[in-house]
Design a protein that fits this description.
Helix content: 55-70%
Mean pLDDT: 76
Number of helices: 4
Low-confidence stretches: none
Number of strands: 0
Strand content: under 5%
Structural class: mainly alpha
Length: 152
């Protein structure tokens, strides 16, 4: 710091006597800005609201209607795009359903004319009780295990 300090608080905050942009200058700039804002608020309080003419109301209404029409056109375009996607998805699903039905028909080529499935023929003597003398062994052979019959 250059020069002696004075006893006042405002000069004690000064960085140096040759510094024109010291703390005092910054404080003065803030105070001037606050004064300008306050003056602008006072002017705004005394300013009368603008007079609205009938033409202004009509122009405002026309602008509002134009905005609504533009928003409506945007919604219609969106709806058309969604309908097109929905139609495309429907066609795709119909194609997939047709492919599925064709594949199902090809896999079930052994279906009888009346729509019932044909089963392979049962070997001769399969159901004959006397064909296997030990019934428990017969069931074990068919099921892979001995059946648990209830006691009775």
């Amino acid at each position: 710091m250059v020069g002696p300090r004075s006893q006042s608080s405002s000069t004690a905050l000064r960085i140096g006597p040759q510094d024109a942009y010291g703390l005092e200058a910054e404080y003065a700039a803030r105070e001037a800005e606050a004064n300008r804002r306050e003056a602008a608020l006072r002017r705004a309080e005394f300013r009368a609201p603008p007079v609205r003419r009938a033409d202004d109301v009509v122009e405002d209404r026309l602008a509002e209607l134009a905005d609504r029409e533009q928003a409506l056109a945007g919604r219609e375009q969106l709806i058309r795009a969604l309908e097109a996607r929905l139609e495309e998805a429907r066609r795709h699903l119909e194609e997939r359903l047709k492919q599925f039905e064709e594949r199902k028909a090809a896999q079930c080529c052994a279906v009888a004319g009346d729509g019932r499935r044909r089963l392979p023929p049962v070997p001769a003597g399969y159901f004959a009780h006397s064909s296997y003398p030990k019934e428990a062994e017969w069931w074990a052979m068919r099921l892979g295990r001995t059946p648990q019959l209830p006691d009775g």
